[in-house]
Design a protein that fits this description.
Blueprint (H helix, E strand, L loop, with lengths): L36 E3 L6 H13 L14 E4 L4 H10 L9 E4 H10 L11 H14 L3 H16 L18 H13 L3 H7 L2 H9 L7 H9 L5 H6 L7 H8 L1 H5 L2 E2 H18 L4 E4 L1 H4 L4 E2 L2 E6 L4 H18 L2 E7 L20 E10 L16 E10 L5 H9 L2 H15 L1 E3 L4 E3 L4 E2 L5 H7 L13
Parallel strand pairs: 1-2, 2-3, 7-10
Antiparallel strand pairs: 4-6, 5-7, 8-9, 9-10, 11-12, 12-13
Helix pairs in contact: 4-5, 4-7, 8-9, 13-15
Length: 466
């Protein structure tokens, strides 16, 4: 499935050109006057963007170098529609219903056909449900959130594109509500419900506010009720008090909302292993989260740390690592959360419960010379980038369960825990697996052993994104 949504079913008429906007003047004939394209560089890179811009112009498309009011279609790669909206908000640009947000696959298909192809449901199905799920989460509607996220996950996993309602027959987790939305997208090229959400001021504000490190739903609700709609107004308000985490979130905002590349994640991994092994040479350090699942980009980098050594050594490790980075001038922010883990405590019945291991949420300074691919994205005069990093320290006998939990994805973890409860009469969380029938904890030294206990074939990390 293509990850990006679209706001409507066909090309729009050209809107009035913004005075002073920078328009490209290619030496190619423009065949499609009603379309003005802007290709987003985010996650795509400068070289590929330049190549696609030139190729599109040769094919008769009008492509603008910079974003302006004349643009009718924004084309992006490896971005969801909500991520593009977030990017627009950072640029202080409000997306209108006249603006198409499209996956690069649409442009490639169009260039291959020699004309703009019809914008069909396949360009927006998955993202439609992710947007609806996110809106449900902002409203703290757990039932709707799960419904829409399950639908998005199922659609992502399909080896084919849904082009008619007959294609949905026999597919699990697609209830009547979900099928109505799919049918509307197939027939009209858009979902009126998704369109309403994208244009909803509350959704747009929550999307923007929660993009700040340390800002959750309660704070977003408070700011929204106070009438705030932009981060600039919030930061300049003298009456508001921010937490230490939120202050760091605003201070390093531009870096933290930009994507972390795999090359940057690997460079952070080198820093983490260097610091950990300086104090605990036998420790195992594993990158978890989306990067372990094979993703090329993410918003932060998670690491699970464990050691067969003494518990005392484990407890003292993270404070030593923090001090190590402080002395090197690499630590921009940290929040150390002490362990509340209790051995032999039954796993939680809540599928989204947080674990009780010692952990540290950090912002590290990553110098560009450590990442060759980062050089092209450097701000002028700036030699480093702020990167969000999470470190989790767990006892060695629990590391398999912690690794499974911290690898994700969130929906995968929800479903495997539900499966354990409802199909196997077991309880699973980041700490342990308990068999209620046998009334005993089941030991596991690897993820493979956990899957075996559950009677499941092992699922590789890169197959857990849905």
């Amino acid at each position: 499935m293509d990850p990006l949504c679209t706001a409507s079913s066909g090309p729009r008429k050209k809107r009035p050109r913004q005075v002073g906007a920078s328009m490209a003047s290619p030496p190619h004939d423009i065949k499609f006057q009603n379309l003005v394209l802007f290709i987003l560089e985010k996650k795509m890179g400068t070289t590929r963007r330049n190549f696609l811009m030139e190729l599109a112009r040769r094919k008769g498309f009008r492509v603008e170098n910079e974003l302006s009011d004349s643009v009718t279609h924004i084309v992006a790669e490896n971005n969801s529609g909500s991520e593009v909206l977030e990017w627009l908000q950072v640029q202080n640009i409000r997306a209108s219903s006249q603006l198409e947000l499209l996956d690069v696959s649409w442009l490639i298909e169009s260039m291959g056909a020699g004309k703009p192809v019809e914008i069909t449901g396949k360009h927006q199905l998955v993202d439609a449900f992710e947007i609806l799920a996110e809106n449900s989460e902002f409203k703290e509607n757990e039932v709707s959130y799960v419904t829409f996220m399950r639908a998005a996950s199922v659609l992502k996993s399909l080896p084919f594109t849904i082009i008619s309602m007959r294609d949905t027959e026999g597919i699990p987790c697609l209830g009547d509500k979900v099928k109505c939305i799919i049918e509307e997208i197939i027939e009209d090229g858009e979902s009126s419900e998704v369109k309403a959400v994208l244009n909803d001021e509350r959704y747009q504000s929550f999307k923007l506010f929660t993009s700040v490190f340390g800002v959750g739903l309660k704070t977003s609700e408070k700011w929204f009720r106070m009438g705030f709609r932009s981060l600039n107004k919030i930061m300049s308000d003298k009456t508001l008090k921010f937490t230490k985490m939120q202050k760091a979130g605003f201070l390093y905002y531009e870096d933290l909302v930009s994507c972390v590349t795999r090359a940057e994640a690997e460079a952070v991994g080198v820093l983490v292993k260097e610091a950990v092994w300086a104090f605990l040479p036998d420790a195992f350090v594993t990158m978890t989260g989306g990067f372990r699942r094979g993703k090329k980009i993410g918003h932060d980098v998670d690491f699970l740390i464990t050691s067969p050594g003494s518990a005392e050594d484990e407890e003292q490790l993270l404070p030593k690592v923090i001090n190590f980075w402080e002395k090197k001038g690499l630590l921009l922010y940290y929040d150390l959360v002490e362990s509340t883990f209790e051995k032999f405590k039954l796993p939680s019945r809540q599928v989204d419960t947080l674990d009780h291991f010692q952990k540290c949420f950090l912002i590290l300074k990553l110098h560009h010379q450590r990442v060759d691919s980062g050089k092209s994205n450097q701000q002028e005069g700036k030699t480093w980038k702020a990167i969000r990093v999470d470190l989790v320290m767990c006892p060695y006998e629990n590391h398999a369960f912690a690794l499974l939990g911290w690898t994700g994805s969130r929906q995968f973890e929800r479903d495997i825990r539900r499966y354990a409860t409802h199909e196997r009469k077991m309880m699973l969380d980041n700490h342990a697996l308990y068999d209620k029938t046998k009334r005993m904890f089941l030991k596991a030294e690897s993820e493979e052993e956990i899957f075996a206990h559950l009677g499941l074939d092992y699922i590789e990390p890169w197959e857990r994104n849905a």
